[in-house]
Design goal:
The protein is built from 13 helices and 13 strands. It has 372 residues and is of the alpha/beta class. The protein has a seven-stranded parallel beta sheet with strand order 5-6-7-8-9-10-11. A four-stranded antiparallel beta sheet has the order 3-2-1-13. Strands 4-12 form a two-stranded antiparallel ribbon. Bound molecules: 2-succinylbenzoate and magnesium ion.
């Protein structure tokens, strides 16, 4: 397969409501969609889930554009016309880090490669599930009002979401969690602190044990694996890592040392779908439950995440919510919640395409690149 052209589309998409976490507030999604066009006229798509600022990780949209343009695309010249997914990943390995940029470009190439074989991503993974249960990640209300939070959560529960994740930070934690648990004693409930706590908060976090939570997601700094081991010993609530897991090796280490007993697999955080699948396989062999995280993806990234989440180790509902939870208008046909979950796309590749007029409408910048 010869890739003739790579197009970067930078979109600004308003969120239906601001998404506030311990690392900041996102009001408009600043997302890059990568389009790869092959010489036989096939278009493949990948989503770069960076935000406009380095709040979740060091990457952001400007660095991703730079890395794709100046480093990843030239690195691919090494493999010539060989666009086998493993060859693509190893060619990109010469660039340290920048997993979101790698995910965006490698997924567009993977999509072309699969479409040429008329094979869906789910089939390529060996996934058998056709429907994936959905959870929803609920931001900190900008008003900091618990009653507003309860109204938002009620809307999700009425819509059929199977699990609620509350974003927490020091000062917004016990009160909202107690209120949600008090009103819905049986709903699967978890927290996500995005690294906002310190080792010295162990007793405080252990006090949440009374709420019967599924897990605490990434309470401490991503580099503090030992801190998470200590926290796991202090809390009955399982600890689940997100930001700390970048690779198969980091997942293996975190499991081995007892820093995590559940893992949030986000393809964009680990450099792509091939590595995400390998982490799934490792966790399955170790008896570690996984669930599919998200980065407020458009339909492009969501479609690929659903294929991954259809694998058997994904035993907990993930952050694979319907398009309407994020956007009034999605870039693809919207994903609509059915029976508390979403259908796994069955078409070739990622199984969805952007709607050209919507893509054009939301685009604030674009660029064409010619691979060397
Ligand atoms: O930590 O899981 C996170 C969104 C952006 C950045 C980080 C995170 C999130 C979410 C939302 O929690 C997940 C989603 O619904 O896509
Ligand atoms: Mg998280």
């Amino acid at each position: 397969m010869t890739i003739e052209l790579i197009r970067l589309h930078r979109l600004n998409i308003p969120l239906v409501r601001p998404f506030r976490t311990s690392f900041g507030t996102e009001v408009v999604r600043d997302v890059i969609i990568v389009e790869a066009v092959s010489s036989d006229g096939i278009h493949g798509w990948g989503e770069c889930t960076t935000m406009s600022w380095p709040g979740y990780s060091y990457e952001y949209s400007d660095t991703a554009i730079d890395v794709i343009t100046r480093h990843l695309l030239p690195a691919l010249a090494e493999i010539g016309d060989d666009n086998d997914p493993l060859a693509v990943r190893s060619a990109m390995d010469v660039v340290r880090g920048h997993p979101m940029a790698k995910t965006a470009l490698s997924t567009a190439l993977l999509d072309v490669w699969l479409r040429q074989q008329s094979m869906s991503l789910a089939t390529y993974f060996g996934a058998e599930r056709t429907h994936v249960p959905s959870g929803v990640s609920v931001g900190i209300p900008t008003s900091e009002s618990v009653s507003e939070l309860l109204d938002e959560v009620a809307g999700y529960i009425d819509a059929g979401y199977r699990r609620i994740k509350l974003k927490i930070e020091p000062g917004w934690d016990r009160e909202p969690v107690a209120a949600v648990r008090g009103r819905w004693p049986d709903i699967p409930l978890q927290t996500d602190a995005n690294q906002a706590y310190l080792r010295s908060d162990a007793d405080h976090l252990a006090s949440f044990d009374e709420f019967g939570l599924l897990l605490h997601e990434q309470p401490l700094h991503e580099e503090d694996l030992y801190g998470h081991v200590l926290l796991s010993e202090a809390c009955a609530t399982p600890i689940c890592l997100d930001e700390s897991i970048h690779s198969v090796a980091s997942a293996d280490s975190a499991i081995h040392f007892g820093a995590t007993s559940i893992i949030n697999i986000k393809p964009a955080r680990v450099g792509g779908y091939i590595t995400a699948k390998e982490i799934h396989d490792l966790c399955l062999s170790r008896g570690i439950p996984v669930w599919c995280g998200g980065m407020l993806e458009t339909g492009i990234g969501r479609a690929a995440n659903l294929a991954l989440a259809a694998l058997p180790g994904f035993t907990l509902p993930g952050d694979t919510s319907a398009s309407s939870r994020y956007y009034k208008v999605d870039v693809t046909e919207p994903f609509v919640l059915q029976d508390g979950g979403l259908p796994v796309p069955t078409g070739p590749g990622i199984g969805v395409d952007p709607i050209p007029e919507v893509l054009a409408d939301l685009t604030v910048w674009s660029q064409e690149l010619r691979p060397a």
